[in-house]
Specification:
The complex is a heterodimer. Chain A is mainly beta. Helices cover about 0% and strands about 55% of the residues of chain A. Classes of the chains: A mainly beta, B mainly beta. Chains A and B meet through β4, β5 and β10 of A and β5 and β10 of B.
Chain lengths: ~120, ~110
């Protein structure tokens, strides 16, 4: 089955710096890659996703890049703010056909701390 | 995005007992999932809740331990049966958007087994 590796496990940056989190996946058939932010005591929140037909996607200070050949994708957060502090998870799935992307396989998570 | 609620939000239970967790979404969805997140860990899929039929379980999870119901397109329950301290986790319900296939999570149920 699919395996997703995520690095680093912890990341500490100063406010205003950029943060980059990287994930690799094992199954070349994977074609959907979402990123989630989980704050303490809450459920994961979808912040951005990318499908395999594009190489990059941006949403304000957040961007995701995908390299299908190398089977890795990355989350980039620019101009970090203290409220960006949270646990970030990457995930991968394979379009199951019909009406669903099906199960998500998650990476191990990255604890991001942004220091004021 | 869908609004998802879970009940209870947290509970402390005695070993050997069972707890049923409810998941309610504010719109009809085709796919509903149940995940487990052990303390400080990532999310692991328990099963896909299928409307009108038996749930589809992932390797390592069985129906006798985690029975799931899904009577309609907006509601599902997960029961954690014959609990042991190892079942202490956050249990999360998620739904897949019918139009975008994006998956959204509920707030989770924090279970402690003593």
């Amino acid at each position: 089955g699919e395996n997703v590796e995520q690095h680093p496990s912890t990341l500490s940056v100063q406010e205003g710096d950029s943060a980059v989190i990287k994930c690799t996946y094992s199954d070349s058939a994977s074609n959907y890659f979402p990123w989630y932010k989980q704050e303490l005591g809450k459920g994961p929140q979808l912040i951005i996703d990318i499908r395999s037909n594009v190489g990059e996607k941006k949403d304000q200070r957040i961007a995701v890049t995908l390299n299908k050949t190398a089977k890795h994708f990355s989350l980039h957060i620019t101009e970090t703010q203290p409220e960006d502090s949270a646990v970030y998870f990457c995930a991968a799935s394979i379009f199951a056909g019909g009406t669903s992307y099906g199960k998500l396989t998650f990476g191990q998570g990255t604890i991001l701390t942004v220091h004021p | 995005s869908a609004v998802i609620s879970q009940k209870p939000s947290r509970d402390i239970c005695q070993r050997g007992t069972s707890l049923t967790i409810q998941c309610q979404v504010d719109s009809q969805v085709t796919m509903m999932f149940w995940y487990r997140q052990q303390p400080g860990q990532s999310l692991t899929l328990i099963a896909t809740a299928n409307q009108g039929s038996e749930a589809t379980y992932e390797s390592g999870f069985v129906i006798d331990k985690f029975p799931i119901s899904r009577p309609n397109l907006t509601f599902s329950t997960l029961t954690v049966s014959n609990m042991s301290p190892e079942d202490s986790s956050i249990y999360l319900c998620s739904v897949e958007s019918y139009s975008s296939y994006e998956q959204y999570f509920g707030p989770g149920t924090r279970l402690t087994v003593t």
